[in-house]
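Predict structure. Chain length: 148.
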Amino acid sequence: MAMEAGKAARVGHSTGRATVVQLEARARVEFLDITARLQKLVDESGVVNGVCHLFVPHTTAALLVNENDDPALQNDMDQFLARLAPVGGEYHHNDGNCDAHLKASLIGNSKTLLVEDRRVVLGRWQGVFFCEFDGPRRRELRVKIVSD
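Prediction complete.
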């Protein structure tokens, strides 16, 4: 968008809904499928087309979009990450959970998903997982659903 000198760009007004979702992880490492919960939030928001922003305000938890059909994949993911960042490895940050920080950093703490026709857009086999790497803990997930 071209702007005249000295004038700020004007953007369209978007309505949105922000929600804090409480999650409970019962194990040190856990992959919680939150797909249905997110779809429910989209349904409640009334947004037809837009985006669903997800953010985890924790340094040892993450968000993952991956296959949710076969639970064995979660075990494979856990074993893969354990090889990259083993529990009890020789770390400079030695408070007992450095591996959790590293795993969360690899996966990432935010995602943006499209919403089309009141549905979260995901591939046929995809789901959204909250990844806990330093549980058991009570956590929060921040969700903001914004209309086009």
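Summary: The chain has one domain: 17-147.
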